[in-house]
């Protein structure tokens, strides 16, 4: 049987869509925003207002003027960290089981449950 090469398993993450994150590496470092999308297969996230690229659009019926648009480009998931608003700093997220036996996400900086 032949081995398959270059097949990666999806990235595991404790981040979810609409979490507020801070960029901890790269040219967009120290910028904050909400997660708009997560691509677990490629290990990337799109963060609102971070890593903006200029896109040149030709006129269409939806956008009759065309012109230059700024859109968010993906950032590698290792370059973002959960932002704890109470502690006002980046924090790791850990998993715990509450009294009802349900898994919950907990911020390591404040010890409070995340959403």
What does this structure look like?
- It is a single chain.
- The chain has a domain at 20-90: SH3 type barrels (Roll), CATH 2.30.30.
- It is globular and about 55 Å long.
- The strands form three sheets. Strands 6-3-2-1-7-8 form a six-stranded antiparallel beta sheet, with no helix packed on it.
- It has strands at residues 20-23, 32-39, 44-47, 52-57, 67-72, 75-76, 80-84, 89-91, 93-97, 103-107.
- With 115 residues, it is mainly β.
Task: Based on the coordinates given, report the CATH architecture of the domain at 20-90.
Answer: Roll
Rounded to the nearest angstrom, the radius of gyration is 18 Å
Beta fraction of the residues?
Answer: 35-45%
Largest β-sheet summary? 6 strands, antiparallel
- Uncertain stretches of 5 or more adjacent residues: none
Subunit organisation of the chains: single chain
CATH topology of the domain at 20-90: SH3 type barrels
What order do the helices and strands follow? EEEEEEEEEE
Please provide the count of β strands.
10
Q: Briefly, what CATH class of the domain at 20-90?
A: Mainly Beta
- Helix tally equals 0
Task: Describe the strand arrangement of the main beta sheet, using strand numbers.
Answer: 6-3-2-1-7-8
Our measurement of the CA-to-CA distance between the termini, rounded to an integer number of angstroms, reads 47 Å
The mean pLDDT is 92
Q: Estimate the helix proportion, in percent.
A: under 10%
Q: What structural class do you assign from the helix and strand content? A: mainly beta
Envelope shape: globular
